[in-house]
Structure formats: structure tokens, C-alpha cells
Amino acid sequence: MGETVSPKGDIYSYGILLLEIITGKRPTDDLLHNGLSLHNFCKMALSTRLKEILHFRLLEEIGEHKLRSRSWPEKEGVIRECLVSFTKIGVACSVEVLSNKMRIKDAIIKLHATKARLIRTWVYVGERR
Fold first, then answer.
1. Which residue has better confidence, 76 or 90?
2. For the segment 46-59, what is each residue's pLDDT rounded down to a tens digit?
């Protein structure tokens, strides 16, 4: 941060944007104080507390689908894994040390793979009427 404009700066911004979408929080949110950044907030919650950081609208949408879906148990694990994947990509892109930052090409490949997994889940484990 505070450096010249570069693709690495763009990938940092992209990572922060992805984390904002997932959490519904901004880097300047009151919750994030005393040295806690959006990046660190998400990184700490990745392994065990993912639900605590998810935007409430994402949780509502998941809850509504759960009520309507007969195949929910098969989908729930995949949805959680995909949300973890999106969060990991956001965290990897928003690392402040340039040499440790994910490359945009790698981020795009991982995002496409996660999207494909979600689509496959809905197609192959779709509603059976």
C-alpha cells in the first residue's frame, strides 16, 4: 500500500473487493480496529468461523435455498467449500507483501474452477421433481 500503481496493486485491490463482497464489510468498518485489517479478519476466520464473517445476505440466501431444496445435504458441503475457496482467493490476493501475493492469472484460474464446481453441483445434484 502507498506504492506506485502496478498490477500487484490491482490484485491487492481485487482481493479486498472480493473480501468486501463476501463479508459485507469495508476495510474502514468500525469492527476492524486495533490493527485488525479486513485481510486478517478473514484469514483468521477461514478455518473454523466462516459463518461469522459471511455477509448476512449470503447467509439468508443459503438459508432460503436450504428450505426449498430436497437435495440440500449434498449441496451444503460444496457451497461451504466454494465460499472457503472464494475467501482464500481474496486473502491470497490481499497479502500486503508483494512477493507473496497471488498472481491474477492464478486467481482467475481458481475462481473459474470454483464457479465450475458450483455449477456442476446445481446441475448434477439439482432438484429432482
1. 90
2. 767 777 777 667 76
- Strand, helix or coil for residue 30: coil
Torsion sign (Cα): 37, 81, 67, 116: positive
Contact in structure between 53 and 45 (CB atoms under 8 Å): yes
Residue 24 C-alpha cell reads as 459485507
End-to-end CA distance of the chain: give it in Å, rounded. Answer: 52
Distance CA 67, CA 118 (A): 18
Q: Could you tell me which residues come within 8 angstroms of residue 8 by beta carbon, excluding any fewer than 6 positions away?
A: 98, 101
Condensed to tens digits (0 to 9), the pLDDT of residues 95-113 reads: 887 777 888 899 999 999 9
Q: How far is CA 51 from the centre of its chain?
A: 11
* DSSP character string of 99-117: GGSPPHHHHHHHHHHHHHH
Q: Is 101 exposed, middle or buried (0-12, 13-18, 19+ CB in 10 A)?
A: buried
Count CB atoms within 10 A of the CB of residue 105: 9
